[in-house]
Amino acid sequence: MIWDWDYTFEILPVLAQAAIVTIEATAIGFVLALVLGLILAILRMSGPKVGWCVSVFIEFIRSTPLLIQIFFLYFVFPSFGVTLDAFVAGVIALGLHYGCYCAEVYRAGLEGVHRGQWEACTALNLSSLNTFKNIILPQAIPPIVPVLGNYLVALFKETPLLSAIAVMEMMQTAKILGSETFRYTEPITLVGIAFLIMSLVSAALIRLVERRLNLRSAK
Amino acid sequence: MTEVTAIKTSAAQSAAEQPMVRFENVCKRYGNLVVLDDLNLEIARGEKVAIIGPSGSGKTTVLRMLMTLERIDGGVIWVDGEPMTHMMRSGQMVPAAQKHLRRVRSKIGMVFQHFNLFPHMTALQNCIEAPITVLKMSRKEAEARATELLDMVGLADKKGHYPAQLSGGQQQRVAIARALAMRPKVMLFDEVTSALDPELVGEVLHVIRQLGAEHDLTMLMVTHQMGFAKEFADRVCFFYQGKIAEQGVPQELFGAPKNERTKQFLRAVLESV
């Protein structure tokens, strides 16, 4: 028989442990991407010189493969005296890479806020921080939630790349389990199913958030 | 007398003697297009001035410059006896720093053609946001004041409504209450009825009329409502090609205009009614 149920139940707890690492890498990486993306978007809109530098940086990151960025942080940075733990390097690379994509999404959201809203803030003498935090962002975010959600799922599906630097996430664990027993069918299939289930759950959650935001803005 | 000496002299005069708003040789250009050409205009305290004129004559730009939504390319704008667009530093007039600009700008409130209410906030939240964050009022005090103002504009029962749940006229009245919540000395109205259905115009004009009667506010309004300008304003300025082509008391300007372009404009407006 191709499928061994006893072996499946034996490796499930190990893969479940690895799934936690995958979820942690996704969650931390995405929060990093959201924060970095917002900072980059603001800097990009702040002035021509800074904006140009940020644009170049974003293009550079988006135009180079994530795997190279992961390798660079993990294998090249130590040459400059910066040694990072594999998990930390992987998460930073994910956050950096997707932060650049998120920056473009934020920019679209911010530019979508009507100019009159900025003018009303000036007329009311609101500070730049209050304008941004209380008026502009709450209007810019709801329309971009679906796109940000897509990037969350995309980032989640990129976490197997962290296996390249031996982060013990699901893919790396499956590979090790396979190499130990020479049975790859069960671990790799289980990892695939786990990714499918978690992606579907994430997509459903994003739709829920989107619906709630739409309901609030429709009031 | 040099320009600097003249400015110093004017700054030395007491604020009370000064006009509330003064445009001194103000210029505004967009590239090669001159929108305002050497504008000189004084508005006294408590005066109500209506600005009329054809499209592109620069009338809205006057309000936008005064609200610092547009930079000026020349001249100085004075508010309440002190320069707003400039400030004195080491005896020299220099372009105003952000802090100075914000301080002087706090004396001005503006109501926009398209209301510009914050759509994610209720009418009450729209009216308390700036008093709390800018004037540092307590929430309780800000809410009490906002409720009072919403009551004044006839919308006390709508304070929990979002802008999308209000008619255009109601939104504009909330916008007026929001501007008043900042206790301005000068109120700017930029074509506040232009985006409204005809049957909603009256309710907004009624609120402005009430404001004029009950408050000692200096008001500048860009309007296409000639009837209202005639009845409400102390003075009407007719703008044409970036200049004041003619100005005077409403009866004079509407009854016996002297400038040929004013006559043409008023004839065209009256024919379209």
Automatic annotation (TrEMBL), chain A:
The UniProt record lists the keyword Ribonucleoprotein: no
This protein's UniProt keywords: Amino-acid transport, Cell membrane, Membrane, Transmembrane, Transmembrane helix, Transport
Major subcellular site: membrane
PROSITE patterns: ABC_TM1
Localization, UniProt: Cell inner membrane; Cell membrane
Entry keyword Cell membrane: yes
Membrane topology: Multi-pass membrane protein
InterPro entries: AA_ABC_transptr_permease_3TM, ArtM/GltK/GlnP/TcyL/YhdX-like, Ectoine_EhuD, MetI-like, MetI-like_sf
Residue ranges of the TM segments: 20-43, 188-209
Domain ABC transmembrane type-1: residue ranges: 19-206
Family of this protein: Belongs to the binding-protein-dependent transport system permease family. HisMQ subfamily.
Listed name of the protein: Ectoine/hydroxyectoine ABC transporter permease subunit EhuD
Automatic annotation (TrEMBL), chain B:
SUPFAM superfamilies referenced in this protein's UniProt entry, alphabetically: P-loop containing nucleoside triphosphate hydrolases (SSF52540)
Membrane topology designation: Peripheral membrane protein
Location in the cell: Cell membrane
UniProt cross-references to InterPro entries, sorted A to Z: AAA+_ATPase (IPR003593), ABC_ATPase_HisP-typ (IPR030679), ABC_transporter-like_ATP-bd (IPR003439), ABC_transporter-like_CS (IPR017871), Ectoine_EhuA (IPR014343), MetN_ABC_transporter-like (IPR050086), P-loop_NTPase (IPR027417)
Gene3D superfamilies registered for this protein in UniProt: P-loop containing nucleotide triphosphate hydrolases (3.40.50.300)
Family: Belongs to the ABC transporter superfamily.
Record flagged with keyword Cell membrane: yes
NCBIfam families: ectoine_ehuA
Domain ABC transporter: 21-266
Taxonomic source organism: Dongia soli
Pfam families per UniProt: ABC_tran
Protein's UniProt keywords contain Nucleotide-binding: yes
Designated name of the protein: Ectoine/hydroxyectoine ABC transporter ATP-binding protein EhuA
